[in-house]
Design a protein that fits this description.
By secondary structure, the protein is an alpha/beta fold. It folds into two domains: 161 residues, Vaccinia Virus protein VP39 (Rossmann fold, 3-Layer(aba) Sandwich), CATH 3.40.50.150; 56 residues, no CATH class. The chain contains seven helices and seven strands. Helix 1 runs antiparallel to helix 5 and helix 4 runs parallel beside helix 5. The longest helix is centred in the first third of the chain and has 19 residues. It starts with 5 loop residues before the first helix and ends with a strand. 30% of the residues are buried. Bound molecules: S-adenosylmethionine. S-adenosylmethionine binds next to helix 5. S-adenosylmethionine (SAM) binds next to helix 5.
């Protein structure tokens, strides 16, 4: 890949080339506690119906119109695509990686919460373009979705949303599709609380906190792995 192709690659990552990438699984629509009990009842009935269909390998989709603003800002979930962080955050990630390489900030790259792996695919693509083979890209994820919230301050319970649970095998396949899978790409599988404290990483140059990672930082033993000039980026 040449540098000129990067803009197109980023569009592929966020799925902004296809209207259908805005369609959504009905199962992804969270029950809204603010609507009337009758509508909540309808939502629950729909969710049950969806589960019955899903068990038979059938999925109910809502064909929402494609909205460029949502995709630029990373506020919808692409049905087609490899990252849900949106165009602005991908650009920000690119700047962070290129700055680290230009200024020789030492260390590896890590994203905690990778979903389909798109953000890390961009990092790996940038390393390939710069012929950098002595730094790793670490993908930390349960590869089975989010844990249930610890308490009422920990956000909505979305632990049963299958859309957010992407297996390690699937993420590896996504990398392989773009010829990006090699020994530089490393997987840390499990809950952050278990995997990150003892992760075999000496130094971090860019740390990207995928959405869902913030609760990990409450009560998790911290390690001084950041190097001078480390970039820290967040989903939200
Ligand atoms: C919103 S997605 C991340 C989106 C991703 N950064 C992208 O580029 O599209 C959240 C991811 O974090 C993972 N996750 C959330 N909390 C976790 C935890 N405590 N331990 C391990 N993985 C977690 C989920 O499995 C999911 O893949």
């Amino acid at each position: 890949m040449k540098h000129d192709d990067l803009a197109l690659f980023k569009k592929v990552l966020i799925g902004s080339l296809y209207d259908e990438s805005a369609w959504t699984f009905v199962s992804n629509e969270l029950p809204d506690p603010k609507v009337s009990w009758l509508i909540q009842l309808k939502q629950r009935a729909l969710a049950k119906f969806w589960q019955i269909l899903a068990r038979r390998g059938l999925y109910l989709l809502r064909p929402l119109p494609y909205d460029e603003d949502l995709r630029v800002n990373g506020t919808d979930w692409p049905l087609i695509g490899y990252s849900m962080i949106g165009a602005k955050r991908l650009d920000q990630l690119q700047i962070a990686v290129e700055t680290v390489l230009d200024e020789n900030v030492p260390g590896d790259f890590i994203e905690t919460g990778v979903w389909r792996g798109g953000s890390c695919m961009l990092i790996k693509q940038l390393l390939n373009l710069a012929n950098v083979s002595d730094r790793s890209v670490w993908l930390a994820d349960s590869f089975s979705g989010l844990p249930p919230p610890k308490d009422q301050f920990d956000g909505k319970d979305i632990s049963d949303i299958a859309f957010l649970a992407v297996s390690e095998a699937q993420v590896r396949q996504n990398f392989a599709r773009f010829d990006l899978l090699d020994d530089q790409v490393k997987f840390l599988k499990g809950w952050f609380f278990d995997t990150l404290p003892d992760a075999p990483i000496d130094q971090i140059a860019v740390l990207r906190l995928g959405w869902g990672s913030l609760s990990f930082h409450h009560g998790c033993p911290q390690r001084p792995v950041s190097s001078r000039g480390t970039e820290r980026l967040c989903d939200r």
